Protein 1
Amino acid sequence: MLTKGVKYMLLSTLFFSLMNVCVKLVAHIPAAEVILFRSVISLVISYAYLRRANVSVWGHNKVWLVARGVAGASALILFFNTLQHIPLATAATVQYMSPIFSAVLGLFIVKERVRPWQWAFFLLSFAGVLVIEGVETSVDTFYLWVGVLSSVFTGLAYAIVRKLNTQEHPLVIIFYFPLVALPAVGLYALFHWVQPEGWDWALLLLVGLLTQLGQYYMTMSYQSEEISKVANLNYIGIIYALFLGYALFGELFHAGAYAGMGLVLLGVVLNMRYKNRLAKREALHQRAH
């Protein structure tokens, strides 16, 4: 029987996957303009929640909060551009490399140690990207590496969130993303505006709503269950992406590309399991002493 935490994470992953589909369906609209709509919706909802919780929207550590906003905005701009130019499953797979970059950047931001085995897992994931690049002619190499760069910025955003974790309210951290993103994407959209038509408006609205639902159910999952038991369920997003990419966009890959995706995910999952095992060992050691 599925626990609440597992159900919430499965819903979260589904909502994020559907959000990716919506972004791809409006590929004729610049990514910055899509993010503009997403940011407005996110800003309004986040502000409303903060007001209801009676929490100051500005936080305490403004430099790191702005840095998190810049990293998150950069990651999203790059990721949405990737989604609009390469197959859905490939874009989603590359984005899952962000925990690797989070661990590497965590060396400098939160002074966390990276063990030798973790470096081996990181290399395995990079090997997967190289396999995809080498065998899949339908994947634009430029946008494949734009996707990798997106996961670097996502990893940076995660590392900054870890630094802010005990210092700021989670909703304040979320609020700063649209706050920082809006001026940048708004300025770009002003000079490169493409008028949405018909169903475009509904899809742009859905991008914002599905993102909020994904974040909400992910938070609920982490509150209901141990992180180690539900975090790996994020990778079911690849199954969603493969199915939705085939059903909606007719996306099929060479066998080598599937192998490359598998290597990327294998490296990420092995790293996560290894970190969980180390955390349990350290907890047992502290309890014994």
Protein 2
Amino acid sequence: MKLDVFDLENKKVGDLELDDSVFGTDVREHLFWEVVNWQRARRRAGTHKTKGRSEVKGGGKKPWRQKGTGRARQGTIRAPHWVGGGTVFGPTPRDYSYSMPKKKRRAALKSALSMKARDGKIRIIDSLELPEIKTKRAVKLLQNFEANAGLFVDVTERNEGSNDVSHNDNLRLSVRNLNNAKYLAAEGLNIEDLLRYDFLFLSKEAAAQVQEVLK
């Protein structure tokens, strides 16, 4: 598969050959549902909590004597059927994440990329470097390609002598206030964001890195 390479003004400056095993595979849409659910489950905080009868404050004293009042016997005002009492079988903190085979995740990514390529929704950009941090420049970039929403993917560089990485900050900070655009590092490419945004903008280096990892 060969795709055109454009500059930021949507002018063709070359072409790039892509591997069919990554950008031309069969689209297996059922994997999208599985992987998106897996991603969302991993993001769930799981910090929900209600108090049981043993955790609710108060209720140490028997509200009235056992017999002779004409009322039903009660042991504590913090029983579940009392207002302010404990909750029965309420939610407790838990981990919602679960494992998914790496082959499935890779197959889903290939399917999503292939679907974008098939539908003509991938744009390979020679360089995604913006001259300055400016939201208007990001908006103009989307307009140049007549895209109503876009996912921008570029490579990162590891800083020498440390574990820190440098992002394309001009682009990242320019799109952060847009609800129809998002920046991702190439290693962070995922199914949910691929499906959420209409167009995928890949720098040449990012396309090569994604292809190298997935093929």
